What we know:
Blueprint: E1 2-8, H1 13-22, E2 26-28, E3 31-38, E4 41-48, E5 53-58, H2 65-68, E6 74-77, E7 79-80, E8 83-84, E9 86-87, H3 89-105, E10 113-116, E11 125-132, E12 136-143, E13 146-153, E14 157-158
Antiparallel strand pairs: 1-5, 1-6, 1-9, 2-5, 3-4, 7-8, 10-11, 10-14, 11-12, 12-13
Amino acid sequence: MTWYALQHKPAQGDRAVVNLQNQDITCFYPKIQIEKIKAGKRTQKLEALFHGYMFVKLEQNDPNWAKLRSTRGVLRVVSFANKPAGISDDIIQQIKDSLDSVTQQGGLKLGEAVQLGEGPFEGINAVFQAYDGEERAIVLINFMQKQQRVKVPVSSLKEPLAPGGRGVGERGCP
Length: 174
């Protein structure tokens, strides 16, 4: 059996999954937990990893192919040159493994060590304190022999170097 991508109708991914499962079709609809800020409050929401798409596992000669297009919630089978595009099991397994690692990681936590990857403090190690809105974070950096609270873009945070590694902000004198 091979995996294939299906495009579902807008906001009907869950409906399509239920109807496909009622037809005994193996489905994979990857979702991730994300944080959104609504009315100034941080909320958790489960969202599709690939908006508008899901995966089904079928044989080429399976009679369920004829039912796919008329299944409630399903828009079409992703195909090229009128042939459904198969997806290898390895790729689907990679997506599943990635979802597991994202779920275990769960975002940054108070006191977690990070490194600033861009901007004026690039390469400096910091300690995560809190999120400040949707796109910024508050971190502590050692600057002028004192810990300073700095607001930086969340996108600039990355994992710190391993002990013994030297970042841009830790340059030694020649």
